[in-house]
Amino acid sequence: MSSPQQRLPRDQRRDQLVGVARSVFATRGYRTTSMDMIAEAAGVSKPVLYQHFDSKQDLYLALIDSSAAHLDSRLAEALGSTTDPHEQVHATYRAYFDFVVSHREEFVIIFNSDVYEPKAEQRLRALRESSATRVVSALQNFARLTDDEAQLLCRALIGTAEVVVKQIDSQRGIDADTAVELLTQMSWGGLRSFADR
């Protein structure tokens, strides 16, 4: 348990609890994780945990929001890093796979969660929509595509990346660097054909 000498300012304590909870949820899953487990892992009493979060769902939604904001900022940075479409494709895949590798627990919270809470699903949908909007905008800056065409291509690109991540996880025969290069080559080969339309 925390001693008085170990008391943290409220914001720091909340950040610490979010970090610990992220690790516990990513390892155990939403359904089998309890607030008792998180409090114990954080070295705090359960009442301290409830001073910051009203419920397990409230804590999990905070995790989704934090992880989603992190991923969205990485994708926005990648898309804004260059005006060259080929480099944008490469940078975006790189940002996505770097996030998967370097921020594994956040990735699990966003993409491999076992939670079926309506509010959580709504937040995760909002993340996908935000990311899709960025990609659609980049596609339409590059090629003359209708909204429906850009949406379709965007879904194909995002869906492909998500499938490839799961493939890497299950087989381990391809590393993230190789996946980035292969996906960039494949995607760019198709996308550049739209530039002349």
TrEMBL record:
Transmembrane segments: none annotated. Residues 34-53 bind DNA. GO terms for molecular function: DNA-binding transcription factor activity; transcription cis-regulatory region binding. GO terms for biological process: negative regulation of DNA-templated transcription. InterPro entries: DesT_TetR_C, DNA-bd_HTH_TetR-type_CS, Homeodomain-like_sf, HTH-type_TetR-like_transc_reg, HTH_TetR, Tet_transcr_reg_TetR-rel_C_sf. Keywords: DNA-binding, Transcription, Transcription regulation. Residues 11-71 form the HTH tetR-type domain. This is DNA-binding transcriptional regulator, AcrR family. It comes from Brevibacterium siliguriense.
